[in-house]
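Exercise: predict the fold of this chain.
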Amino acid sequence: MYILFLILIIRGLNRMTKNTIPSAEDLYKRAQDIKPVLKSRAEETAKLRRLTDETIQDFKDLGFFKIVQPKRWGGYEMDPIVFYKITSIIGEACMPSAWVYATVGVHNWQISVFDEKAQDEVWGDDSSVLISSSYAPKALAKPEGDGFVVSGEWDWSSGSDHCDWFFGGAILDPAKGLDSFVTLLIPREDYEIIDNWHTYGLKGTGSKRIKVDNIFVPAHRIHYLKDAFANNNPDKTNKGPLYKVPFGQIFTHAVAIPALGAYRGALNTFIEGAKERVSSFGVEAKTNPITLTLASEISTEIDQLWHNIEANVKSMMDAANQSKEIDINDRIRYRYQVSTVNDRCVAGALKLVKASGGSTVYLGNEITNKFLDIMMTQVHVANISDPFAMDYGSSFLGIETENLML
């Protein structure tokens, strides 16, 4: 009954706040309030291998998908730190829900820097329409008229079952390399979703394969990565500071933070369990020095990671608010630092698994599940820190980087 009561409140919030912009604190409270609902759906979500329709609708009703959407399309156009904090709170309860929310929700930012005609095609009739993605350059494209004919297959398109459009990566001209790296915007009628999502973690994200075969993508539905890097985007209508922050920063923070939320969720579960857990040798966890030290160390690490993220995002938004260019060396530093988040979450979550005893070997253990989910996102290309460490080290030595995801 309590879960049903929460769901009814969520539905009511949508009717009450449809035309108003809530405060950040109000949105954080909504995210905290829905955590029990998300936890109650976790098993069903894993079995479905995608989020439930109800979860996506709840996120819409609560206004979560509006946070980085332009005001002119009915969004809130808020500081991206609000979007990231909502992601983290959701991740405390259910990391697959956080992952889909982050990777789909961030596209409401990217479509906002596309050509206005593309924005109108996506949101003209319904501004709640969602977009999934897979940015690996897996498409073959040949020029035709005012655009390209495209064929290809992309894996890892999270939340694709709930979306009406797709962002796919492509290199339009291999001879030009990264200068022709683009994001293609493709409507649902032009692609097939192939259900190949059978995994050990993030089971509920529905990150399925997308296939297209000889479809036409007009020029206004193409966004060049080099333009995203230089903040030379096609859109000329969404002029707020939010859309002056580089795509490489907005997106890569979005795919790092679900793990940070799950890390805190694992810690919370560990602490609650330690209050009652007694080992096979009669040692109470709450008196065990390992338990006490680990709880303090991990809590401190999470706080430190968040302080770093908040400081970096604030620095970028301060520059954007003043119409100043963000120094490239700062962009390199921010990019490297956020790329290390998942590595640290994996290492810390493993410590929580080991310190939680034999119960972690059983299916359904919440700490183990979160550890597996975090491990899955560690292999996302944006979360592999090695190349960004090289970029950061090169910046000390005055060596220029060719990385466009900064």
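Check your answer against the key: The chain has a mean pLDDT of 94.
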